[in-house]
Every structure is written in structure tokens, then in C-alpha cells.
Amino acid sequence: MLRPYASFQAATCFMTQTFSSSQVVCRPARADDHADITEFCKGIWEGGDYVPEVWPDWFKDPHGILVSAEYEGRVIGCGKLSLLDEGQWWLEGLRVDPQHQGLKVGSKVHNYLTSWWLKQGDGALRLMTENPVVEHLCEKTGYVKVQTLRGYKASPIAEPTGNFSPVTDLREAVAFTRQSESLQLTDGYLDFGWRIGQSNEHVFEGFANPKADFFHTFYWWQDKQGLFSAWEDEENDQGKLTLGVLACALNDMPAMLMDIRRFAAHKKFDKVFLLAFLDPQIIEKLEQAGFSTNWENYLRVFEKKQASRTLAPRAHLPRAQVPGSAGVGNPTYEDKP
């Protein structure tokens, strides 16, 4: 995935360039880094880290950059910068070997990726974390906190509903979403599968692609009075309907969410889940519809912007691949039992 950017040479992470074994060196990833990353990720999230599984796909991604941090001949950290859409970049998969804490590896990888984006990217670079260390690092490097989120869930309701119809015109869906009162409360941000971005037709098309790992199906509610997207997930052998786009008038939100709970029962799901933007008005409507949270922590989205500029043309833009956050060994952001 790094061949288009081969001119960005490996360098000691914002220190004097050297390849001494006593220095932490950040560089574009190599195929043989996977073994070291797989090994040290066994000590993260009790061996349940997703990064080793998705790393080969990240390595083949022709957009953005995948970075490894090397120390004394071994890879002890990594991070991924992904292009979601023109002018929308996402920093994810920041990991540090638990046996090498104290070397500021996470800071060095973060700084390397940010510097790369300032030279090669455009628009907005975002990340999501619950880690206070990463939050402080973002503030030091010019990122601004733009959103706070928390996981909410509800059980399905075994009652009939016929208020939904599939979206057939994504342009119409995008236009409706952008004008919706609910989206105005989030300043235009949406959750497209553990990646927060701004809506446009191309983004909707990408996530409506059946080949996307977070394949969204878009539905109208009540003769186009509302719209939502969702994808199928599984947790602890239970089916989970996860919501993405949620667009409607604020006063309609409880009724639409209640109908979504009925829709989930009809589709044989065991629960409904969404990452909720913590606007007081949105949370009030969620609770009115029977949604609740047992999360102790919060996810915070940070953003850094730069002026748009003409970049080299890209043959195509990537689809969503995996959930991503910038926490260094944070707990997974799954719905907690």
C-alpha cells in the first residue's frame, strides 16, 4: 500500500535521523512486520485485538500509509492513516508493545502520521479515542475535540411495523440527511462504522457497497419522514443491529427509534446498538425510546484541518474495512454485556 508514497523515507521519529539500534525508528511498514505485530498484540485486549487480522488488508491499501515503529531490530508499534473520502482521513490502529512502554512510541507514531498527512493529505484528519494520554497528545499537536460519543443499546420489540422501505436513490438520501434536524445537532458528523465523518454521496455509495465490511442498508421511515442506515453485527453469539445514519426531525426521533426496535425484532436481532453523539437533546430522545448505556467511558473525536489543495488523482477511493480507534491498547469499543 505504500508504493505510491515511497518518497517519504523511513526516519527516526522526529529525532535526529539515525538507524542506531538504540533509537525508535518510524518507517513505512514492510510485509515481514506482521509477525512482530501479531506477537505483541497478544498482550493487548487479552489477545482479542483486531489489528493482526486486518493488518494484511491495511498493508495492501493503496491510499494513506501504514507505519511501523522499530526498536533494536523488532517492530514494537504501528499505526494506520486511511483515506475515507476526498478530504476525509482517519487515524486508527495505533498500537504499542506492552513490553516497551515508556519509550513514547505512541507519540512518535502519532507525530509521524500527522506529519505525513500534512505533506501528503488535505482536508480533515480525525481519530477517536478514550485514552487520556492520546487526548493530551492530540491537544499538543493541534487537534481539536469536535465530538463525544457513547454506546447506547435497546432490546427489540416484538410488535409489527410496516413503516420502512429501502432507499433506492442515494442522492435523495444524502440531501435529506444533510437537511435533517438530527444531523444539525451533530454538526454534520455521522458514524459510518466506528469511523466518524461528514456525509456526501460518495461516502454513502461506499458504505452501501455489499463488499464493504460495514455494509450499510439504508431505509426510509414513514414515507420519507426519516432515514436510517444499519449493518448486521454479532456479539457473544447474539445478532446485533448496529445503527449508523439517523436522520429525522428531532420530535420524530423517539417514534422512529421505537419502530427501529420493532424492525430489529422482525429481522430476528437480539439487540439494537448505536454510537450516540452526546448532544443533550439527542440523548433525551434516545432515552424516551428505551435506549440506555452501561458504558463507563466516553469516546472523543479529534480533528485537525488544513487547506485543500490539488493532489495526485486517485483511481478509486477505499471502502470501510474495520473499526478503528487511536487508543494505545484501549479496551475494545464493543457494546458491553
Give a short synopsis of this structure.
This protein is an alpha+beta fold and 337 residues long. The protein contains 9 helices and 15 strands.
Could you characterize the architecture of this molecule?
The protein is α+β, with helices and mostly antiparallel strands. It folds into two domains: 3-121, Gcn5-related N-acetyltransferase (GNAT) (Aminopeptidase, 3-Layer(aba) Sandwich); 150-288, Gcn5-related N-acetyltransferase (GNAT) (Aminopeptidase), CATH 3.40.630. It has helices at 34-40, 51-60, 105-120, 132-140, 170-179, 181-185, 201-207, 253-266, 280-288; strands spanning 11-12, 25-28, 65-71, 74-85, 88-96, 123-129, 144-154, 164-166, 189-191, 196-198, 217-221, 226-235, 238-248, 271-277, 299-306. It starts with 10 loop residues before the first strand and ends in a 31-residue tail after the last strand. Mean pLDDT is 85; it is low at 1-20, 315-325 and 327-337.
